[in-house]
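Note to self: keep these together.
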Amino acid sequence: MLFLSYAQEDWEVARQITAKLRELGIEVHDWRGRRGGQFIRDAARAISRSDGFVALMSPHFLASQWCLAESEVALQREHDLQASNEDRVFIGVLEVAETPHAESGFLRARDWLRITAQSNRDEMIAALVDTLRRGGGTVSQRPADDAADRTAGRGASLFRNRREELDSVLHGLTNVAGPHFWLAVAPPQLGKSWFLDQLRAEIAGRAVPWTTKLVDLRVQPTGLRRDAGALLRQLFEPLIAPAPVTARNIAQAISRSRKPYLCLLDSGELLPEETVNALRAELAAIYRYVHETRARDVRLAFVVATRREQGWLGVMPDPRLVVLPLTEFKIDVVMDALSDLAATMGRGLSLPELRQHAQRIHDLSEGLPALLVPCLEWIQREEWLEPTQPEIEELFTDIAHPYIRERLLSLDSLYPEDDEDLPQPQREQRDEPLRALEEAFRLLAPYRLFTMSHLRNHSESDPGFNAALAALNWSVEKMWAAVSASAVLRRPQYEPWQEIYPAIRRLLYRYFYSSAEMRAAAHHEARKFVEIWADRQRGKEQVIGLLESLWHEACELQLTQAAEMEERLNDSARKLSQDLRSSEAYTVPELRAFAADRMRNDAEFQRVLDDHPWLFVPLASIVRLPGDGATI
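Structure:
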């Protein structure tokens, strides 16, 4: 990762350089206007984790106290690295505006690469990356959709990554009866790119050799995203060049090869829906032609990884894509990783001890690959000693806060389509939409399910959210459109309400509400609104309101009055069930049975009651049969 240091006034050129670096496969730390407060402490941590420091030199840079402070930290970091490698190069300078060398302090002794002219910008950026690499830096080579991809080298030894998902897809692809078309969908940081790389490697080793082609849209020219024909040529280039790109020609080439063919498409969210539709139609035609050739062991398979399902789902054209949601790692995966780590370090830990450590690490990271690796490295550094609660909180601050601020809630992460889905934000005003979106996610993080009415409710009572909307001159409807288009929501979404991806929601909830008091207050306010909202509903929506009200109350009581949980929840469950009203479609007994069944399958609700395991089943029974006084 490179730490990019620049003055606020040079933001536009910094944005262009960041985009070019990411095209080259370089992860960039970008503070995006967050200076102030504890920034120097946070910047020092980020610089200490970086592979290189790049100063965007200009008169504005020399006038910025923040840039000078960052440079001092970078110099110290370089000195530390040179203690073990005297040739280590950590600091690079790109001159983005005419700047007097004599006034630049210790940076004047560095080789400045001048990119004041647009014509040589790409050449100079590539030269800088080469300098840092030759100087001993470990700047990453491949662009990574998520941190799981960046840690894949280490992660392969730490995690038995996604074995079940890989086996499901491999079985489908290698079975004549299919399914052969797959949609791997997940929010940022869940390892989609790693998954495609691993799938490609494993299928290449099969007894029947496959021809594979991986196209990563992040490193392709942007014009390709709107040209289905050009994209098709990229996907089948090993077979058809220079033949005309037609479905029939491609199918004939696959048949002549006598090998099955696998197309892998990464970052599918970058394609507009019209390109997706055109590409799907062409792939369906090729699939039919290949099937008609009746060639033995020959087939076409297609796997796309995407943050959003836009346009990819649907029955037509055939074959439809089978959805494969990539989830966070479960605790058993963490257990396996810890077991391997313990064996490597010669630690004789019992199964209960391993599970205790695994539960702690899983709670810290929410099972997100981007956070699991540093958590395991921390256990290794601490020699498996039992951490104190303050140490756990400090670790969460160290690893989760920068990840959330700089990567998860960056506009490039939320809207990889270069902001097309934001309601017309101007490029030079990117910080303002980001701050407003953070306010929206802060308010929504306590809710498992939400609608626009949730945002509207908070717009009437939360000054911070109101100020953020006013600064943009946005309506609640505009903010709702931005939230709904973001990449951190659960996909595919089969209900009219929205959900933040659960692991990410839990992470954001802990980030925005850092104390037990704040968390309890957030659930208290959420429960009050959900009860009002549910009272206006009938049928299925009222049932959803019942369950969410109980869940919010359980979360609040767990933090404040755990001893009263059984009595309070039983009373609430009885009242909420008695208040259910029939609709044209469902009777009250049907709604109660639906609520009880849904509750029994709610693993997250059950986890809230882990300290009260005897409570959950009777609570669901009360929802189903609340007793006398029920309203039919």
